[in-house]
Each structure stands twice: as structure tokens, then as C-alpha cells.
């Protein structure tokens, strides 16, 4: 499920998203988050999104950590920025989430992932991989 928060620039979408993320973190249902920002070069491109989300998933559950560690041990270059975002997403996020599907389903609680301020992501070649 996707919830899309949209509105004009300056309409307080970011504070709402931060408040929601903090609430989900507090009640243990925040799986991962990434907040884009033009003011922070590391957070203004897609280069760090997948590794960050993957790292947070690994912190969240040992099965995800195991899956992510195995993939990185098998192919350490997967973390390099020039690698395909599709391949990074599939191997570092999607496959670990598949391992957690039944675990989180049995817990009867929804897990939430936040990607916020996508409009803050700078256009460029590195964001198109």
C-alpha cells in the first residue's frame, strides 16, 4: 500500500511526514525511512537511498540482516553507486523483505517505510540507474 502526501511547496508536508515517521518509530512499526534534502548533498540524489533503507531493514530484523549480508558478501560491488538501482533494490530490499513477509504477517502489524521529499532529489544521471 502506498500513501502519497502531496501539496504545494511550503504546505507543511515535511513536518507531517516527520511527525508520522516518529510516531511509527515510537510504536515499532517503522521499517525504514529516507528523507531527501537539496541542502544535504548525500541526501539530494538516489545514490544513498537503497543502501540506507537496506541498512535500516537489517537493523530491524535478523532475517533481513542475514539476507543483506549474504548478498553483499557474494557481491560487494553491489553497493557501488554506478550499479543499477533496479538490481540494488531487488537484491538489497525486495529479497530481504520477501524473507520477512510471513514474519511481519504473523505479527499482525503493518510495517511502514517512508520516502519523503522526492521533489528534493536533484535530476541527474546518477538518479536514472
Name its key features:
Nephrocystin 3-like N-terminal domain-containing protein, repeat, flat, 129 residues, mainly alpha
Number of domains: 1
Structural class comes to mainly alpha
User: What is the percentage of strand-forming residues?
Assistant: 5-15%
Outline type: flat
What's the average pLDDT?
80
| Rg of Cα set | 15 Å
Report on the biggest sheet: 2 strands, parallel
Number of strands: 2
InterPro entries: NPHP3-like_N (IPR056884)
Keywords: Repeat
Protein name: Nephrocystin 3-like N-terminal domain-containing protein
Domain Nephrocystin 3-like N-terminal: 2-124
Notes on the protein architecture:
The two termini are 24 Å apart. Strands 1-2 form a two-stranded parallel ribbon. The protein has one domain (13-120). It has helices at residues 13-26, 49-60, 62-74, 85-106; strands at residues 30-35, 112-116. With 129 residues, it is mainly alpha-helical. The model has no long low-confidence stretch (mean pLDDT 80). This is Nephrocystin 3-like N-terminal domain-containing protein. Keywords: Repeat. It comes from Coniophora puteana (strain RWD-64-598). Residues 2-124 form the Nephrocystin 3-like N-terminal domain.
Amino acid at each position: 500500500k502506498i500513501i502519497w502526501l502531496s501539496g504545494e511547496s511550503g504546505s507543511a508536508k515535511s513536518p507531517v511526514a516527520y511527525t508520522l515517521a516518529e510516531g511509527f518509530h515510537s510504536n515499532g512499526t517503522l521499517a525504514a525511512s529516507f528523507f531527501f534534502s537539496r541542502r544535504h548533498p548525500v541526501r539530494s540524489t538516489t545514490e544513498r537511498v537503497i543502501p540506507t533503507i537496506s541498512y535500516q531493514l537489517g537493523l530491524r530484523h535478523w532475517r533481513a540482516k542475514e539476507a543483506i549480508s549474504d548478498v553483499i558478501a557474494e557481491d560487494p560491488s553491489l553497493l557501488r553507486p554506478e550499479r543499477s538501482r533496479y538490481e540494488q533494490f531487488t537484491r538489497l530490499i525486495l529479497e530481504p523483505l520477501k524473507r520477512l513477509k510471513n514474519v511481519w504477517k504473523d505479527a499482525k502489524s503493518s510495517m511502514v517505510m517512508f520516502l519523503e521529499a522526492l521533489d528534493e532529489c536533484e535530476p541527474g544521471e546518477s538518479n536514472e540507474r
